[in-house]
Amino acid sequence: MGSGLPRIKRTRTYSPEQLALAVEAVNSKQCTIRAAQEMFGVPRSTIFGVIYRMKKKLGLIGQPKQ
């Protein structure tokens, strides 16, 4: 039950280097996620998602394992 219109694909407007710099700046507490978004041009949700997945992988987020 779609509208019949083709979907618009959004392309990334930032490079992997910009994403890495933004994540590093937030992790080192040089700036907030919102400030990193403005400085590096990376969406806030993308920065948050990368940091969240890193912390989850390290076991810093979630239920403690027994």
UniProtKB/TrEMBL annotation:
Q: Which SUPFAM superfamilies match?
A: Homeodomain-like
Ranges for domain HTH psq-type come to 15-48
Q: Which molecular function term from Gene Ontology is one that the record holds?
A: DNA binding
Q: Which Pfam families match?
A: HTH_psq
Superkingdom, taxonomy of origin: Eukaryota
The record's annotation in InterPro entries points to:
Homeodomain-like_sf, HTH_Psq
User: What's the name of the protein?
Assistant: HTH psq-type domain-containing protein
- UniProt source species: Mytilus galloprovincialis
